[in-house]
Every structure is written in structure tokens, then in C-alpha cells.
Amino acid sequence: MKLKWLGHSCFIIEGSDRIIIDPFITGNPLAPVKAEEIDVDIVAITHGHGDHLGDGIQIAKRCGATMVAIHEIAQYAASKGVKAEGINMGGGVKVGDTEIIMTPAWHSSGLDETNFAISTSPAGLIIKSDKTIYHAGDTCLFYDMKLIGELYNPDVALLPIGGRYTMDARQAAMAAEWIKAGIAIPMHYNTFDVIREEPEKFKKLAEEKGIKVLILEPGEEVEI
Ligand code: NI
Ligand code: MN
Predict the structure, then answer these.
(1) What secondary structure letter does DSSP report for 162?
(2) How far is the CA of 8 from the centre of ligand 2 (A)?
(3) Could you please report the per-residue DSSP string of 85-151?
(4) Thinking of the domain 2-223, which architecture would CATH place it in?
(5) Shortest CA distance to 20 belongs to which of 127, 149, 113?
(6) What is the C-alpha end-to-end distance of the chain, expressed in Å?
(7) Best exposed site among 129, 141, 161, 164 by fewest CB in 10 Å?
(8) Across residues 200-221, what is the average pLDDT?
(9) What is the whole-number distance in angstroms between the Cα of residue 84 and the centre of ligand 1?
(10) What is the Å distance from ligand 2's center to 49 Cα?
């Protein structure tokens, strides 16, 4: 299975289905592609902030992809003509050969152009394809990450490390230890000045706890 980082919290997973998570491409200075070049079957969204929902609605419509998001965002997307499956914490849905399950995340969330008016819950996602991936979304460190590790045994954990709005490198290293994924990959850093962080700092701290860390460059693809 292939995993590609498009900068910020955006990843493309290619197993039997092609899935994009948090497609913030337009306006993302690290994005190595244009939103129009994306071709996927599933668009998975952790929360409604513009740097996560991003180009999701346009991509889902153009590709005829299914959007998977929390109930309210799925309803909003459906009102814009998107084929959408709403889920919520602890539940999930199977789309094609991929199962997507929603986990909690401690953060806030608005919705697209109504960002300030409509509040929705933020989330993390477990993506069960050929491998199991945990995308933590935007979140602080919370002890139930240990439970997420025990419940879903992820092969890969995608963790925010940029601080300010999410965990920083030190907290994310602790998260990686609790989740116990085979590989931890940092995200949500260095996109903007306010979330500057050294991924090597995360790598060093997590590896001291026995967790393997992979630092990707935007556009880099790895076989997992
Ligand atoms: Ni956010
Ligand atoms: Mn964010």
C-alpha cells in the first residue's frame, strides 16, 4: 500500500481504493500538486476547518468520490451535491474495500465558509485498507490515544506536531508511544510560521521511546 504526503495534514493512501485525507491543497504553500490533478475514490475529512476540509467538496464532486466525515459535515457536503457518508465517534462505514472509523480529537471545529457560525466536532480517523492507518486530525494529547492503539492496532500513526493549535513534538512523541503504531509520521507543521517545528525533534523523542519515525517531504510517497 502506498502513502503520500501532500503537506500539512493531507495524505493520499493507495490500496484497493484511493483515499485522500484532509485535502487542503489550494492555499497550502507546501502542496506539490493542484487540486484539479487529484483522482480518488474516497475523500475523508477529520473536521471542518479550512486547512482540513480544504478542496474536499470540489474534489469529491469532480471525481464522483464518496466523502466520509462527521454527520453534520456530510450533510453540508450532500447539500452541495456531494455523495457523502456521515459517521460519528466510535462508529464507521465501509466504502469500497475500505473501512473508516471515527475517533475523538480534542480541538474545535467550524465549517467551511461559515467557519465562525456553525460548530461541529473535530475527529480523528482510523482507515482500514490493506493496512490500518490512524490519522489523529488536529488534537492535543489525550490519554485515550492508548485505547485507540489497543482497539485498532494501527500500522501507521499520522500525528500533528506543530504546536499552537495541536500537540507539539514532545506531546506527539508521547502519543506515538501510547498508540504503539509500527511507524509514526509527523504532520501539521511548517505550513505556516505559527506552526514551526523541527520534525527531527519529534523523531528523536519518539525513537527514544522505541517508536520508528518516518519524516516525509511534501510530495514524497512511501510503500507501507
Ligand atoms: Ni483545525
Ligand atoms: Mn489544522
Answers:
(1) B
(2) 8
(3) EEE-BT-EEEETTEEEEEEE-SS----GGGTTT-----EEEEEESSSEEEE--S----TTHHHHHHH
(4) 4-Layer Sandwich (3.60)
(5) 127
(6) 6
(7) 164
(8) 98
(9) 21
(10) 7
Instruction: Say how many Å lie between the CA of residue 205 and the centre of ligand 1.
Output: 24
Q: Ligand 1 centroid to 103 CA: how many Å?
A: 15
- 106 within 8 A of 134, measured Cβ to Cβ: no
pLDDT greater than 70 at residue 114: no
Q: Where are the domains of the chain?
A: 2-223
The Å distance, Cα 52 to ligand 1 centre, comes to 7
Cα angle value 46/35/164 (rounded, 5°): 40
Handedness of CA 98, 222, 126, 194 (dihedral sign): negative
For a pLDDT cut of 70, what percent of the chain falls above it? 97
Q: Write the pLDDT tens digit of every residue in 154-194.
A: 999 999 999 999 999 999 999 999 999 999 999 999 999 99
pTM comes to 0.97
Q: Which residue has the cell 475527529?
A: 123
Quote the ligand 2 centre to 50 CA distance (angstroms). Answer: 8
Cα 143 to ligand 2 centre (Å)? 21
Amino acid at the residue 222? V
pLDDT of 115 above 60: no
Share above pLDDT 90 across residues of the chain, in percent, rounded to a whole number:
95
